[in-house]
Design brief:
single chain, 124 residues, four-stranded antiparallel sheet
Length: 124
């Protein structure tokens, strides 16, 4: 059964770092763009980082630019989100997502696959 499995996350203090891992199984990730979303309490889910299937396209929302890094290894069917200089406002549930297509950066329609979500909590 195709799925994305997230791991990592947890708790950090302001200024700290965490890494999220998203492993795809049951499908070939290299044909999909990869994105990370997050949803803070009482807020809508927002896309924060995207990478095209060939890794040449990158997008970050302004609030995480220069602090978060999305990366992928298609041979390992894995995507990562490295987060540094964490702030309390980064506290949220983080989701990875995969959207099919070679010309997609951030998905404009619902992605084909979602991870189960990983809690990230940043304390001051």
């Amino acid at each position: 059964q195709p799925q994305l499995a997230e791991s990592g996350g947890g708790s950090a203090q302001t200024g700290g770092s965490l890494r999220l891992t998203c492993e795809a199984s049951g499908f070939t990730l290299k044909f999909y763009s990869a994105s990370w979303f997050r949803q803070a309490p009482g807020k809508e889910r927002e896309v924060i980082a995207c990478m095209s299937s060939d890794s040449l396209g990158l997008h970050y929302v302004d609030s995480v630019k220069d602090r978060f890094t999305i990366s992928r290894d298609n041979a390992k069917n894995t995507v990562w989100l490295h987060m540094q200089d964490l702030r309390p406002e980064d506290t949220a549930v983080y989701y990875c997502a995969a959207a099919f297509g070679p010309h997609i950066l951030c998905p404009t329609t619902p992605p084909e696959y979602w991870g189960q979500g990983a809690q990230v909590t940043v304390s001051s």
